[in-house]
Structures are given as C-alpha cells and as structure tokens.
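hey m, so remember when u said the tokens were messed up on ur end? i reran from scratch. heres the input so u can diff it against urs
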Amino acid sequence: MRLFRHQASSTLIDMTVNLERVSKNEAKRLRAAADRVQIVERRLGWRRIEGGVVSSGRQSSGIFKDGKILPGTHLYRGCGGQFLSSDVHCDVIDEDVVFLGVFHRCWGHCITDCLKHLWFVLGGLPNEFSGMRMVYCTYDCQEELPDNLFEMLSFLGIELNSAMRIDQPTRFRSVIIPDECFYVPESEDTLFRYMTPEFGLLIERLIDAVGVDRSGRPHRRVFFSTTHFHFWDYGAEDFDVAFNNAGYEVVFPERLHFAEMVRLLNETSIFASLDGSCAHNSIFLRKESQLIIVRKSREIFWHQHDINLLRNLSVTYVDAFIYASILLYEPNAPKRGPFFVWINSKMADVLGCKPTLPVLNIIKFLCWGITLHFGHKYGEWRRNRARHISMR
C-alpha cells in the first residue's frame, strides 16, 4: 500500500495521501510534488514602485518597471511574460494606486493565485494607503471574469466593480504592491511552493463571511461533475452515473453561487472530483475532510497539493485515464487536454462497482485526439511557413 504522511517543515500539519490506486511511477511523482509544498512564516509588507506600469495580456500581465516584469506581480511564476516592449503605448495617470493582482477566468486560479496579494483585508490598509484607488489587471485583456469571483471578493470587503480594471498598459505615479502570501520564489530554480499563514486565514475569513454553520458534523458525500462545462473531459458522464449509483450527490458547480458552494462543501465529509480546477474547490472543505481525486492525466496539478496541505485533507488519488502525448492538442501544454477517463478496476474498487471497457468511446476519443493533435500541428506549420515567406 502506497500511503505516506507529509509534514511541512515549518508547520505542525500532518497530511495523509493514499497512492494505492496510482501506478508506481505516478506515485513517485505525486509524492515529490507534495514534498515541495510548505507553509512558512514570512513577514508580509508592501512595495511602492514609482512610475510602475500595470499591464494585461497573455504576454504582458503584471507590473513592469523599465520594461521588465516585477517579481511576484504576474499570475504565477513564468506566466504572463517577462518584458514589456518599449514600442507599446502607455496611458499615464498621475495617481497613487494599490495593486490587487492579476485575475483570471479559470476558477482554480481565482481561489488561489488571485488571492495572493489580498491578505491586507485581514487587518485593513495602512493609513498611508487608505483612500487610494485599487487597480487590477487580467491574464487576457478580452476575458470576462466569472461572477463568482466578484461575489467571493465582496465577502472580503473588495468590490471589484469599484476598482479600476487595466486593459491598456498604464503608468501610474506609483503602484503599491502587497507581498505575496501564496507564491513560488523567483530566485529559486526548484519548484518549491510556499504559503504563509495569512493565506489560510484568508480562506477561513471567506468561509466565516459566507455564514456557514460549523456546529454540526459534515455528513454529505458529494461529487463535482465537469460534464456541463469541460467538454474535453471525455468519458466524464460515466462518472456522474457511477458516483450517483454509489450514493454521492452529483453537483454541477458552475450552477452554484459562491456562497451556496461554500455552504455545501462545509457540510461535506467526502468530496470527489476529477483533477484540475474542479477539485481545487476542496479548499473550502472543513479541515481533515476526505478527498478523492480522479486523475485524468499524468499532469501534476500543483495547486491541488497546496490545498491538500492547507486544509490537512485525507486524500486518495486514483488513476482513471488513458494517456498518450500524440493525443494532446498541444503537447507542450498537457493541461489543455483532451482527456479520457473511464471506470477502470482502480476506480471501480473505490466505488464498489464493476469496471467498464467503453470500447466505442475509446475509439472515438482516439480519432478525436489524433485529429486535434495533427490539426494543431498543421496550423503551426502554416503559421511558420507564412512567417518564413514574409521574411524573404
């Protein structure tokens, strides 16, 4: 039985992870990922950047000074570009502002990376910054942020509609940047990930603000389904049926308001989900709850390991996927899928049902995946060819 207990060196948290239903190689990778997460004591403060430029966009989201990204101001390390071209036009506003962060429409980032600068709500803004306007940028200038992000931030006392959204690079007199409480250090070549106690307190503040009843024992068994919003999870509909037959409530989280979801998770003793953003909602479970992660690929979803430790969850990982790099739409970005999941013997053991072999679905998935993969390759070839011709 591959069961291990992970103890973060700077905390007393002792997290149990069951890897019995994961292959040996995958178990080794998951164990290594868990060992790279720590909760650390760090004095959080503020930086004032004179003439800082706030910018949005996949290649330039964050705060820039002299054309270079300032460490810790992008969505997460390595995301959003490192430089802002000197040819880019900047609007100029002669005003001091407080930076809230880079926001993303992906819910998993909303409840992790998008909160990393917001620890200041625990004690309020320092007097010298009170009255300053708050600004934020987005990973994609055109993206529409989810309503639940606005609702969640309102429970922290931040009305995002009242803050200034930056879609065009804008230089301010100065930008006040709160330190990160959830981060990967820029100075480290390793993939160590850190949280400060303030990040955990932020989550607790959200749970309390929603008004959950903590007096009773959690009793519900809940499975969050991805079938209504993630069509690249091929075969996911079979899991809705299987978990329902096993006595779980099958819930479609995109139909819930933020407060409804948090109250539901507060009453949940066993929570199950496919890996990825949907599973990240476990951040609102009560501490020491049980979590079942249905793995849909070999991809390591790093944020989940942060959450497992933060909430001290008892986690069971189950391999339930068919993987081949040739089936990926974009091999360098495996999180984009597509994914195929099925009720194999490992999953059937968890649910107490019989395994299935959906041959027809597997054939359809193989055809679909290969078509997407080579379609993407052909698109890349056409773009490169057009670029080569234009340079002649």
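this time it looks ok to me. The chain has two domains: 3-39+201-374, 46-179. if urs says something different then somethings off w ur setup not the seq
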